[in-house]
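Pair request: fold both.
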Amino acid sequence: MGGRARFAWLLLLLAGTAALPAAEVHEKGTMPLVISNGQKVKLADYLVPGKTTVFDFYSEFCPTCRAIAGDMEKLHRGREDVAVVLVNINRPGMKVIDWHSPVSKQFDLPGTPHLKVFGPDGRLVAEGKPAYVLVTGWFK
């Protein structure tokens, strides 16, 4: 390929790359966002910039998950600085906690609910039991 052809090809390549959409920046909605439905996820894609983001890995078949669901929603709605993202570990059609789902395996979940708390800067603050204690302390 000659110099001009290479340059034209490079311009086309760069133009095509520039046309790709930027990663979506998530904002806090009125209700917690529900993601996954058993599929793998990239949590960084769902962090809410400038907010503490709480990821709640749950199953509708988990009694503790159901018990805290209302408080998680109240936390999301009641605190401007906190966003809750619900990570449904169950694939569609499952009638039990789906420990074999891709997202369960991806995060090697020891149980549900399993919480991960990220600070406003996007860094992990707490996970597992320490995250559960932190978040449930905010329910007051």
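--- second member of the pair ---
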Amino acid sequence: MSSPTFDFSEVDDLYQEIILDHYRSPRNQKEIPESDMDVTGINPFCGDEVHMRIKLSGESISAVSFSGNGCSISQASASMLSDIIKGKSLDEANNLYVDFRDMMHGNDLNEDSMDNLGQAEALSGVKKFPIRIKCALLAWSALGDAVKKHKSE
């Protein structure tokens, strides 16, 4: 009796669809008129750019918007990030940044951490292409910088 086989290309196709969906129909691009945190991430090597505005309610993220220009990876990643951090505390958002960064650098994450990343898990395959890791990390690194700056004020 043979064991069932699993076609990993189907997972790759699903992940590719998620990335393309976020690139073609980015979430959270409606401008927030009064934000508490503004941050811009720029990759000088390729010109990718992401600008995020975050509105806080206490220490929780009540609204997020982003705009930017760049490759499908950087823009889809920013879209996913903007969806994932809404409603999270700044500490939770920073933990998501750390988990995402670790995933991009090939570190194994536990199941809960992967679940918390939601659709951003679709970007895990980017780690196979080292030159594209900075693209995927652009918005997340900007978020990490913004949280660090906000906490120090």
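Observation on the second member. Residues 1-8 have pLDDT under 50 and may be disordered.
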